[in-house]
Amino acid sequence: MSEETAPAMLVILRHAPHDSSWLREGLDVALVAAAFGQRVTLLFLGDGVEALRPGQSAGALGQKGTHPTLDMLAMYDIEDIRVDRDSLERRGLTPDALGWTAAPVDVESLPALIAGSAAVFNF
Amino acid sequence: MAATNPTRHLVVDGREVALDPEGYLVDLQAWTPAVAEALAAEEGRELTADHWEVIEVLRAFYARYEAAPAMRPLVKAVGLELGAEKGRSLHLMRLFPDSPAKVAARLAGLPKPTNCL
Amino acid sequence: MLLHLLNRSPASSQVPQDALRAMGAHDRLLLIESAVYGAVAPQADLYAALEGRCFALREDLVSRGLVEHCAPWIAMVDMAEFVDLTAQTQRTVSWY
Lengths: 123, 117, 96
What we know:
Chain B has about 120 residues and is mainly α. Chain B contains 5 helices and 2 strands. Chain B is globular, with a radius of gyration of 13 Å. By secondary structure, chain C is α/β, with parallel strands linked by helices. Chain C has one domain: 3-Layer(aba) Sandwich (Hypothetical Protein Ychn, Chain: A), CATH 3.40.1260.10. In chain C, strands 4-3-2-1-5 form a 5-stranded parallel sheet. The model of chain C has no long low-confidence stretch (mean pLDDT about 95).
């Protein structure tokens, strides 16, 4: 029970797919931690929310996207996925329109989420 | 990730199959069930129906997620596909001793799992 | 109390706004590298509400010709003070 309530590690994803490697590296850190049994919370913030947009595919030259990795998170028991509501709104997105289920975080609760995590990895 | 430079070849049905330094396929498309059997035979393993159904789970996992699973997600995937009785690390340890995620990925023609160790 | 390290300028990036929204009421912000362009008016207005807990690295202001232009509500710190700031905080979060 205590394992359930202990603060999770927070991985913040702030970069868009098909851009730099930051998004993929952040996801890899989350997967490695989860593979070792660490509880992980993901927060999509800024351009990172673009990773949740539906209808993504591989790049024109066949470069892998990150969407299969998002599908895979549940297999690593990464279930706590949050998304910054402001970042969504600024990009014309709503929580219902995303390709994955993510709990919206309001600006008032953002600092507490970060301060209350066991560790923060900001990508 | 499979290395681009093969260090050795395995001859399967008269065809040369390139392997990287750790024994994973250089070209993932080169996999056939006969390749899995040859890789297993090299290590003195014989593939039974229990092995094959796990290999199939792994190949389906890779087709869907484009990644080879670490141990935990492998156990979970096997449990979801083959039932809770088989979705246990003990079952996988018995089938693929030492390091089930790595050994089974190799036999299934997947890249080396990146998220374990 | 967390120390947030920021190295992006508000003129070219949305990252400073994301960092501000993620900051708690007592968290501190340290501007380094290109973020120090934001320590100069009018961009420095973005940090006016953080008076007393917003800092800028002096050597990065100096190298960019900004040391005379740093807004009064942003405190300049040298490397030793930077180290003190990190020692006083429970955790550092980098924004880049």
